[in-house]
Design brief:
The structure holds 2 protein chains of 2 kinds.
Chain A lengths: L6 H13 L3 H9 L7 H12 L8 H16 L36 H24 L8 H11 L6 E2 L1 E2 L7 E7 L4 E7 L10 E8 L8 E6 L6 E5 L9 E9 L12 E6 L2
Antiparallel strand pairs in A: 1-3, 2-9, 3-4, 4-7, 5-6, 5-8, 8-9
Helix pairs in contact in A: 1-3
Chain B lengths: L7 H11 L5 H21 L3 H15 L10 H20 L16 H4 L5 H12 L2 H13 L3 H8 L3 H20 L7
Helix pairs in contact in B: 1-2, 2-3, 2-4, 3-4, 6-9, 7-9, 8-9
Classes of the chains: A alpha+beta, B mainly alpha.
């Protein structure tokens, strides 16, 4: 608990709760031993809740968060002690506050760990030498080759031609999607290069089994060169029955729900 | 904080997330999605979507730190959200922006009701005990993230008065939540 007789600590904690601290103030609060005191932050949070008009979160946004986070979380992201756990979680078991735990001394390694590290280093050096002597491994297949392979192997993957809108006159190409593999590629010719700092292209996949108001996010991408461009599809959700593909121009990073103001190409799948 | 009279179900949810239990993330989104979304909307307006995703990412990482002896889950979630939103605001303020004039947010009806967390009800009662000018300044700082200088400019109060109101006001709310009477240091 914060020492009641140190006004500087209270000032810093109040400032942190309301406005955040710069690096110098953060270090000062840490040096005063009070940076784990959350009581001011919790008070500010309680005020926020008390005055907050609650409105429901858009369903599409929740779906997006689930699609993006669940696999990593289940892989052990938030599990204490996991190698993937966040650094501030420390070794505190669930339900116990790592923030109340004093800083741990430097970890001592068991001798076996040291020997393991030495052995691993030798293996890495030997492996690297072998790799250098035998030459570089075969290059990864190009997107064009992967696209051709998908068309050849997946019986449910047939290219569908893009239909350009007035927003992208001259754009052509096709989209290929395999429902069984849940993979696909977009091919563009004549789609204008974008400035990623200002806009990005985003693919939307309309799934017959879902609400048509919320097509599946197929990923954002850039067109950096003229000529033929092939882009892999990164659907954020499982697509059962794709009926329509549409590419829009969105802000950098894409959006969760498009306003569909700038549609550049579409492709209807029968 | 006082032991929070919330339900066992509430207390268990973040622990389930921390243990990586299947379905816990979905449950957490269902329970706290509206709270996080509403907070993000307050701070970010129409650009709330990215912030919400970052907040839940922080929440998954911080779930193991939740201690039901210190707060209820909603208040902990709101604290994690506020920290991320404040970080984003600090980053954003490095670029020139225009700010609209902020009005004092009213105490929400739900804060007095039985469905909210205990701390929010206590905070609402404590806010009503503050002098009107002190409450106004504190809410402008807490809910609108306005700096002392911005509040002084908007209210016409001297900067020193604004700082004192903010600090003492927040201390009063904190003391109410702790269940103790604290003299201002």
């Amino acid at each position: 608990m914060t020492r009641p007789d140190d006004p500087r600590i209270h000032d810093l904690l109040a400032d942190r709760a309301l406005h955040g601290l710069d690096d110098a103030d953060s270090r000062e609060l840490h040096s005063l031993g009070a940076d784990t005191d959350d009581t001011y932050d919790l008070a500010a949070a309680a005020i926020d809740i008390a005055t907050l008009p609650i409105e429901p979160m858009p369903t599409a946004l929740a779906d997006h968060i689930l699609a993006a986070r669940v696999p990593r979380t289940l892989a052990g992201w938030a599990i204490p002690g996991s190698p993937l756990a966040a650094p501030d979680v420390g070794d505190a078991p669930a339900g116990h506050p790592a923030t109340r735990t004093p800083a741990r001394p430097a970890r001592r390694h068991h001798p076996a760990v040291t020997w393991f590290a030495v052995a691993a280093t030798i293996l890495v050096v030997v492996g690297a030498s072998w790799w250098l002597l035998r030459g570089r491994p075969a290059p990864a297949p190009t997107l064009a080759a992967l696209r051709a392979d998908l068309i050849a192997r997946a019986s449910d993957a047939a290219p569908v031609a893009w239909k350009a809108t007035p927003e992208a006159p001259g754009a052509s190409g096709d989209v290929v999607w395999s429902p069984s593999a849940q993979r696909g590629y977009m091919r563009f010719v004549g789609l204008a290069p974008n400035d990623p700092a200002k806009t990005q292209y985003q693919l939307w996949i309309f799934d017959r089994t879902r609400d048509q108001a919320f097509p599946v996010d197929g990923g954002v991408f850039d067109v950096t060169a003229s000529g033929e461009v092939i882009v892999p599809i990164t659907a954020k959700l499982h697509v059962d029955d794709a009926t329509l593909f549409a590419v829009t121009v969105e802000r950098p990073g894409g959006v969760v729900v498009s306003r569909r103001e700038h549609i550049v190409v579409t492709a209807a799948r029968s | 904080m006082q032991p929070a009279p919330h339900t066992v179900h509430d207390a268990a949810l973040l622990s389930r997330v921390a243990r990586g239990e299947p379905g816990a993330v979905r449950d957490c989104l269902a329970r706290y999605g509206a709270l996080v979304w509403s907070l993000a909307r307050r701070f970010e307006g129409n650009d709330a979507e990215d912030a919400v995703q970052e907040i839940f990412l922080d929440l998954w990482k911080s779930a193991a730190r939740f201690d039901p002896r210190l707060s209820s889950e909603p208040t902990f979630v709101a604290m994690i959200a506020r920290r991320r939103l404040i970080d984003r605001r600090r980053m954003r303020l490095r670029r020139p922006t225009t700010e609209t004039i902020a009005a004092e947010p009213p105490i929400a009806d739900h804060a007095r009701g039985p469905d909210t967390c205990a701390e929010a009800s206590q905070a609402a009662r404590a806010l009503e005990q503050l002098r009107p000018e002190q409450r106004r300044v504190l809410l402008l700082a807490t809910c609108h993230g306005m700096s002392h200088g911005e509040i002084a400019e908007q209210t016409g109060m001297p900067l020193g008065t604004v700082k004192a109101h903010v600090r003492r006001g927040l201390q009063s709310i904190r003391a109410a939540l702790l269940g103790v009477h604290e003299e201002a240091p």
